[in-house]
Specification:
Elements: E1 2-5, E2 15-19, H1 27-43, E3 46-53, H2 56-60, H3 72-82, E4 86-91, H4 94-98, H5 101-112, E5 115-121, H6 134-144, E6 147-151, E7 155-156, E8 159-160, H7 163-171, H8 175-182, E9 187-193, H9 198-201, E10 207-210, E11 220-229, E12 232-241, E13 257-262, E14 273-283, H10 291-310
Parallel strand pairs: 1-4, 2-3, 2-5, 3-4, 5-6
Antiparallel strand pairs: 7-8, 9-10, 9-14, 10-13, 11-12, 11-14, 12-13
Length: 313
């Protein structure tokens, strides 16, 4: 898959195109991409995605922006795995937000991306003041020579599959429900970096994962499956949150952290890029009066994780 930052040069050939944020890459997103690829093959055109960075809601109202389910890297990896041939990462700025719906269609979709077919959700809006919608796009397509299709809503057990629904399930600790919407367990990927090495002193060495999800979609202690170690995978216990015992206040306490203790593993993971899938929620983050109490609780968490993993699903 080719990745383009912006639209500095026209597409090399005709495209079939979809646009959106694609946060979390849930079942609805994957159904949309499957339809896009099918249309690309039929028209012998490049299957392309336009996605926005930052999320428009982060730009307009950062204090009310939803928690990110996936980083840009995770989204790009998901697009590539789905078979997308080109992704255009659009920097969402004041100038981009201010362009008219007409300019968006004529300059971006037609002149630069050479769109022959566009597939969007029926709630997609574009252009200054959100003036562009599905009806506008269909009218423009008839005049400018591209087809437009609205992707039907994907539902599961009568509920619409959406990024918002995934966030709600994660925040409520309903990991199985979130996994149903996603088609897989929710996961975060990141690089292992050096930390305080306190876990090793407590007898439970941890891998500290650099993450960029802020605010977090959920917090707590979880049973996880970890992959990325030369094809191997291990079970583990992960703490995702702010570590209130070690950082009870101040700016440092506000930086989200992901720490993972791998069960039955020994070795050096520094620099590795790991994939952490969240299988089961054990408990909330807690504040402990001293490190001995923390050590006792970690031991209990490890026992609970082993019990969960030993229970037939």
């Amino acid at each position: 898959m080719r990745v383009f930052r912006g639209f500095h040069r026209p597409a090399a050939s005709a495209t079939v195109l979809t646009l959106g944020n694609f946060d979390g890459m849930h079942r609805g997103h994957r159904a949309l991409l499957a339809r896009l690829l099918e249309k690309g093959r039929a028209l012998a055109a490049t299957a392309a995605v336009v996605t926005f960075e930052p999320h428009p809601r982060e730009f307009f109202a950062p204090e009310r922006a939803p928690a990110r389910l996936s980083t840009l890297r995770e989204k790009l990896e998901a697009f590539s795995a789905a078979g997308v041939e080109a992704t255009y990462v659009t920097r969402f700025t004041a100038a981009f937000a201010a362009q008219s719906a007409q300019t968006f269609v004529e300059d971006l979709l037609c002149r630069k991306l050479k769109a022959r077919y566009i597939l969007i959700g029926d709630d997609f809006r574009f252009g200054a003041g959100r003036q562009g919608d599905l009806a506008y796009l269909r009218t423009a397509g008839r005049a400018l020579g591209f087809d437009v299709e609205a992707m039907p809503t994907v539902t599961l057990a009568g509920e619409r599959v959406s990024s918002s629904a995934v966030r709600a399930a994660l925040a409520a600790g309903e990991l199985a429900k979130a996994a149903d919407f996603l088609g897989r367990p929710y996961a975060i990927a990141g690089q292992v970096v050096h930390g305080q090495k306190l876990g090793r002193q407590l007898g439970f060495a941890t891998a500290n994962i650099r993450i960029r999800h802020n605010p977090l979609p959920m917090q707590g202690v979880f049973v996880v499956a970890v992959s990325g170690m030369d094809g191997q995978s291990f079970s583990g216990v992960a703490n995702l949150g702010l570590r209130p015992t070690l950082h009870p206040g101040g700016a440092r306490a506000m930086r989200p952290l992901l720490e993972v203790h791998l069960l039955d593993f020994s070795g050096n993971l520094y620099g590795a890029h790991l994939h952490i899938a969240f299988l089961h929620r054990l408990r909330d983050e807690m504040t402990f009066p001293h490190l001995d109490a923390l050590k006792t609780q970690i031991a209990a968490d490890v026992r609970a994780a082993r019990d969960f993993l030993a229970t037939p699903s």
